[in-house]
Automatic annotation (TrEMBL):
This is asparaginase. It holds the Pfam family Asparaginase. Residues 325-367 are annotated as: Disordered. Residues 326-367 have a biased composition (Basic and acidic residues). It is an enzyme of class 3 (hydrolase). One of its GO terms (molecular function) is asparaginase activity. InterPro entries: Asp/glu_Ase-like_sf, Asparaginase/glutaminase-like, Asparaginase_C, L-asparaginase_C, L-asparaginase_N, L-asparaginase_N_sf. Residues 202-309 form the Asparaginase/glutaminase C-terminal domain. PANTHER family: 60 KDA LYSOPHOSPHOLIPASE, L-ASPARAGINASE. It comes from Kwoniella heveanensis BCC8398. It comes from the Eukaryota. Residues 45-180 form the L-asparaginase N-terminal domain. One of its GO terms (biological process) is aspartate family amino acid metabolic process.
Length: 367
């Protein structure tokens, strides 16, 4: 048995061994070729949670400094898809912002990090990369940061966009794009000049399943959540009891966004007026980021948040019709459903917890 727990060069499990090196040392040792194609300004010791600050600095300096042609962020891959989406909806201007990383350690027999870094920088300096928003360059592929997802826990070929496809590939150390520059339909941008990353509202994600414990929705509110995202079955459907509790929470002022639990597809909005908001194309991770940014930038009204998530669907599928006050009924397991007119049941529920803004203990929810 080969030792993979320490300094082995086949370690792709424990990620152990080796001493920490700076970004400059990494470039000089593993990929000095980048110094032949670009002047690289290294910003060291950036906290992994500082993506709001990174976007703020990029927006400011890319506008002021003509000699900055783009930016590259190298970070851990476990949360890369979340940060990529968040950056894509707050990055301004035409200059490219590229994200990349590595699935294998630098000491691995065939580490993917050096080539990913080279390709990321090569894409950032290319004039062809302008006006495309943020992108992920990984494993020789170029993917829109808006649609990217980590699809495999172990493989180097992990960052993909299954339904929308890649924007291009890397060939001979240069990006080759398949399409002219374009932005995703219905994409919303957020102005975060006055937002701090440690002030993003708390938004929690819950996962629907058979016999889902609806009390977790209430627990999320008691814990201080300002918004909730639920990964619903199929097209974003909740079973009867979780839906009722989610509606009560939404009535009391905490927005609840329902995403589709399957890996691809759409959380389908209803034509009728709905207390719950459907994330449309966004998965649960993306919906959480968008809801956080919406709340942080002052979007509070239910109708405004709903339009932000569902606007494209209503415009193109429902032809601009937002319906009237109706209710979507579900069966007990969240499967088949139908839309019915009628009032919501007269229910009252109290969720205990401190409401600092109102100075109240507890929150009464009535529909």
């Amino acid at each position: 048995m080969l030792d993979i727990s320490g300094n082995s060069n086949i370690d792709d499990i424990a990620y152990g061994g080796g001493s920490e090196i700076t970004a400059q040392e990494f470039i000089e040792r593993h990929v000095p070729e980048v110094l032949k194609i670009a002047q690289v300004l290294i910003v060291p010791d950036v906290p992994m949670t500082a993506w709001i600050r990174i976007a703020q600095h990029f927006n400011e300096y890319s506008r002021r400094c003509d000699d900055i042609v783009g930016a590259v962020l190298i970070r851990a891959t476990n949360s890369l898809e979340e940060v990529a989406f968040g950056l894509d909806v707050i990055i301004q201007g035409s200059k490219p912002f590229i994200l990349s990383g590595a699935m294998r350690p630098a000491l691995s027999l065939s580490s993917d990090g050096p080539l990913n870094l080279y390709n990321a920088i090569a894409t950032a300096i290319s004039p062809l990369s302008r006006d495309r928003g943020a992108m992920v360059v990984f494993g020789g592929k170029i993917v829109s940061a808006y649609y990217v997802a980590k699809t495999n826990a172990n493989s180097v070929d992990t960052f993909k966009s299954f339904e929308q496809g890649n924007l291009g590939i890397m060939l001979g150390g240069r990006p080759m794009f398949y399409f002219e520059p374009a932005q995703p339909m219905g994409k919303r941008w957020f102005d975060v000049k006055a937002v701090k990353e440690d002030e993003l509202p708390k938004v929690l994600i819950l996962y629907s399943h058979i016999d889902q414990d609806a009390s977790l929705i209430e627990a999320a509110v008691r814990s201080g959540a300002k918004g909730i995202v639920i990964a619903g079955g199929g097209i974003g459907v909740l079973a009867k009891q979780p839906r009722q509790i989610a509606e009560l929470v939404a009535t009391a002022g905490t927005p609840v966004v329902v995403a589709a639990r399957p890996f691809t597809g759409v959380s389908v909005p209803v034509l009728l007026e709905d207390l719950l908001i459907h994330s449309e194309r966004l998965n649960a991770l993306q919906a959480r980021i968008q809801l956080q940014l919406a709340l942080a930038t002052g979007v509070q009204a239910h109708k405004d948040i709903r339009e932000m998530f569902e606007g494209l669907f209503h415009e193109h599928i429902f032809k601009g019709n937002w319906g009237t006050a109706q209710r979507r009924e579900t069966d007990d397991d969240g499967g088949a459903h139908q839309d019915k007119a009628g009032d919501y049941p007269d229910k009252e529920r109290v969720i205990e917890g401190d409401d600092q803004e109102k100075g109240e203990k507890g929150r009464t929810m009535k529909t």
